[in-house]
Amino acid sequence: MSSNTLTYSSELMKNFLQAEIMAPDKKFEALQxxxxxxxxxSIGTDGVFYCTQESSGSEKGWNRIDLSSALIAKSFEGKSxxxxxxxxxxxxxxxxxxxxxxxxxxxxxxxxxLSLSNSDLDTSWLHNPSWEIIEYDNPNNTEAVLxxxxxxxxxxxxxxxxxxYIFVDIEKDPANNxxxxxxxxxxxxxxxxxxxxxxxxxxxxxxxxxxxxxxRSAGQTIDGMYTIGTVGGLAQFIYQPVLTFGNxxxxxx
Length: 253
Prior knowledge:
- The chain is mainly beta.
- The protein is 3% helix and 40% strand.
């Protein structure tokens, strides 16, 4: 009868503690860097704008980076309670650059900041992003109090590059109980001498419960905005291209 041989070995294993990498934040957008690692942008429950970066060389596998506190400390010195209200994050489909837009609120009025054309290969900029303030300056509609509801980054695809368009929804008149939405696009070239240009919705739309998303029909090179909501209890649903004949929008670069 043949005999059986039992071999064994032992080693000391690390003890891992269950932890939470991504908290249930207020808003969430997922992009990727050039190497395929995830970049998860979010607003924390503390009102801070974060990027949770996948990091294969780190012990936890993820690195959470604060993108907004330094900006707030510099731009709103001495003020308390300043936080991020909303944001959008997008990636150029042609060259991969990362585009960020945030709304900072001090509880009384809102301010728009942009960080554009960021590298998807060298992501060291995440530790010190360059922000540009886009102050409201439309000469036809002065707003004593700016109340930003949403930001959208869209794209026009050409043969050589993709060009981004920034859209911002604000309350048409924050002092009015109707709380209607007005939409603007941002011209960073200030072709007409100012940033904020009206891109009016074709319908009246109340702030509460409305939703917009950027989409594109098959075979098209330009995005459109799908918007659903209500006014006076009546449902509304429209589609508008981001660029229309007679309403040309200048690219940011």
